[in-house]
Design a protein that fits this description.
- The chain is an alpha/beta fold.
- Helix content is 38%, strand content 19%.
- It is built from 13 helices and 17 strands.
- The strands form 4 sheets. Strands 4-12-11-10-7-5-6 form a 7-stranded mixed β-sheet, sandwiched between helices. A 4-stranded mixed β-sheet has the order 1-2-3-15.
- The radius of gyration is 21 Å and the shape is globular.
- Bound molecules: pyridoxal-5'-phosphate (PLP).
- Pyridoxal-5'-phosphate binds next to α5.
Length: 394
């Protein structure tokens, strides 16, 4: 059997897969089995934050693997404690962290914290969580329920847990809060929903209103976190201090890790929550290496230069191809081109792969760009050269 046949026979077919067989990568360039190079504008959906074969990350993983990969959370884990400290420090957040293995799991943790807060802090139990339409919070039964996109709620997975409802916009949140509402869960830039950033003033106003009402603000930074929007967290960019923040994608540079951070340090106590793998030596050592690379990039001003350069290139494309795209959207290195219709997106995806540049889709009609934060100007130039070839024939 060839690779495609093997996959189709033995792997559950939950993805509409492309069958290019990538064997290695360097920075923001991927190579297939024939040595053909592709510019990677997707970074594994915002995961390979420091690119492929980053020496700092690779050395950290190799050195850690030779010592301890994993022991249980019944022992203290040095890189876990250090990574927690580093995340709090870099995001200037006075809180503590629980480590999981994915974004969905981090959000599950956030919902558990909120539910226990609602159970223990009020005379009348609060348990309801409000989320937004076009949101995305994960694929477990609870996080799929929290996801405000009908297409994910196929009736075949029901019954779902109670206590989740969706509203269309931030402005609609105010009127949907009742005395059983415990939390509002939002992304600051909706990623899967179409690379849609919310207005800073609107978010700040919501944050202070929720604080008054003692309703928790949970910000899902699974995609926006770890410098994706140009700051350590999008919450830093928006200058808010949510009650709970979740992270995952970019944190391990490709090693699975999720994190839920909260300033309510005493809500969960021993036995309330746990994870076999969460926060193990390998993933947290990887996280420390990623933060070392990215905080240097940030401090030196190079991250800022890169995102301005990328933005300029993308705006130029949006202007010159106004026949295909309405506008350029997004923040930092979380960017998109809003296409005039879904067929354009399909053609862009297909042609881009043929021109050897990897881009993503988001929502119904957005072409999405999530390059590694370490991408070079040369790689950006080459990627857009190929992208323009890809779209010029549409
Ligand atoms: C990707 C994503 C998730 C889910 O993360 P997984 O690691 O796939 O479970 C949750 N929320 C947001 C905002 C995401 O972008």
């Amino acid at each position: 059997m060839n690779l495609e046949q093997l996959d189709k026979e033995f792997v559950l077919q939950t993805y509409a897969r492309d069958y290019t067989n990538f064997t290695h990568g360097e920075g923001s360039t991927l190579f297939d089995e024939n040595g053909v190079d592709y510019i990677d504008f997707a970074s594994g959906i915002a995961v390979n934050s420091v690119g492929h074969n980053n020496p700092t990350l690779v050395n950290a993983i190799c050195e850690q693997a030779k010592k301890i990969i994993h022991i249980s959370n019944l022992q203290v884990i040095e890189p876990q404690a250090k990574l927690a400290e580093q995340i709090c420090k870099l995001s200037n957040y006075n809180g503590a962290i629980f480590f999981a293995n994915s974004g969905a799991e981090a959000n599950e943790g956030a919902i558990k914290i909120a539910r226990k807060y609602g159970e223990t802090q009020f005379d009348k139990k609060r348990y309801k969580v409000i989320t937004l339409e076009h949101s995305f919070h994960g694929r477990t039964i609870t996080t799929v329920k929290a996801t405000g996109q009908e297409s994910f709620h196929t009736p075949s997975f029901s019954p779902y847990p109670d206590g989740f409802s969706y509203v269309n916009s931030i402005g609609d949140i105010y009127n949907s809060i009742d005395d059983e509402t415990v939390a509002v869960l939002i992304e600051l830039v909706q990623g899967e929903g179409g690379v849609q950033p919310f207005d800073k003033d609107e978010v700040q106003k919501l944050a202070s209103f929720l604080k008054e009402q003692k309703v928790l603000l949970i910000v899902d930074e699974v995609q926006t976190g770890i410098y994706r929007t140009g700051e350590m967290l999008a919450s830093n960019l928006y200058e808010i201090e949510p009650d709970i923040i979740t992270m995952a994608k970019g944190l391990g540079g490709g090693v699975p890790i999720g994190a839920v951070m909260t300033k309510h340090k005493d809500i969960l106590t021993a036995g309330d929550h746990g994870s076999t793998f969460g926060g193990n030596y390998l993933s947290t050592r990887a996280g420390l290496a990623v933060l070392e690379v990215l905080s240097d990039l940030y401090d030196s001003g190079r991250l800022h230069e890169t995102l301005l350069y990328f933005e300029t290139k993308l705006k130029d494309i949006a202007n010159r191809y106004s026949n295909l795209f309405d506008k350029e959207v997004g923040l930092g290195l979380m960017r998109g081109l809003r296409a005039k219709d879904a067929d354009i997106v399909s053609s862009v995806m297909k042609n881009s792969m043929a021109q050897r540049v990897i881009v993503l889709k988001a929502g119904r009609n957005t072409v999405r760009f999530l390059p590694s934060l370490t991408i070079t100007k040369e790689e950006i130039d080459e990627g857009f050269k190929r992208f323009e070839k890809a779209i010029s024939t549409i």
